[in-house]
Amino acid sequence: xxxxxxxxxxxxxxxxxxxxxxxxxxxxxxxxxxxxxxxxxxxxxxxxxxxxxxxxxxxxxxxxxxxxxxxxxxxxxxxxxxxxxxxxxxxxxxxxxxxxxxxxxxxxxxxxxxxxxxxxxxxxxxxxxxxxxxxxxxxxxxxxxxxxxxxxxxxxxxxxxxxxxxxxxxxxxxxxxxxxxxxxxxxxxxxxxxxxxxxxxxxxxxxxxxxxxxxxxxxxxx
Length: 222
Ligand code: CDP
Hints:
Blueprint: E1 8-12, H1 19-30, E2 33-36, H2 37-50, H3 58-66, E3 70-73, E4 76-79, E5 82-83, H4 91-100, H5 104-109, H6 111-115, E6 123-127, H7 130-134, E7 140-145, H8 148-161, H9 168-184, E8 197-200, H10 206-220
Parallel strand pairs: 1-6, 1-7, 2-6, 7-8
Antiparallel strand pairs: 3-4, 4-5
Helix pairs in contact: 1-10, 2-3, 2-4, 8-9
The chain binds cytidine-5'-diphosphate.
């Protein structure tokens, strides 16, 4: 199938809103591919930190991002052949990812890699700018949110489950900082696409959120 005709569901939203879990489940249910675009920013950040590249060095980080030796296999992510599935989930890497994500040359360098995930029979893409910049023609655009308290709890549980230490006060501060940085940057700021469906998951289970997305998709493709 012509790549441009492959259907895309874009799931954007702020940090720890649960969009990754929901997007992955929607992809599974539809039998579609899944793009975790945040993982690409996290991989670029990890590469920068491991090579002692200053996070403000736009050109060097863009060069790292353009040639990321990464490989995705289900939920597993490798960088230069080494499993970094858990390493990229550290809060320090998330914060570094959010800093380098504000650099236009870094965003530009990751576009081709993201477009490459659009493969038949379909793609569920999760991030900040999936519906606004990367896949503006997506069949369905979701902007998934939750209250900052619910998001801090979700991130806390996610980190503890992965064996990282965490505390709610620090996480609330990180979330607020990250939201502000992602929403205020000039290139591809975090904001709902004009034609996005807003989904507040503060009081929804994962199953309820997934069902809502699937219902919206079924309505769109009727
Ligand atoms: O897991 P969490 O929602 O905190 O973050 P993520 O989706 O893994 O993304 C990490 C960081 O990458 C975010 O804080 C954003 O600054 C950046 N990002 C972005 O700018 N654009 C995307 N499409 C995806 C992530």
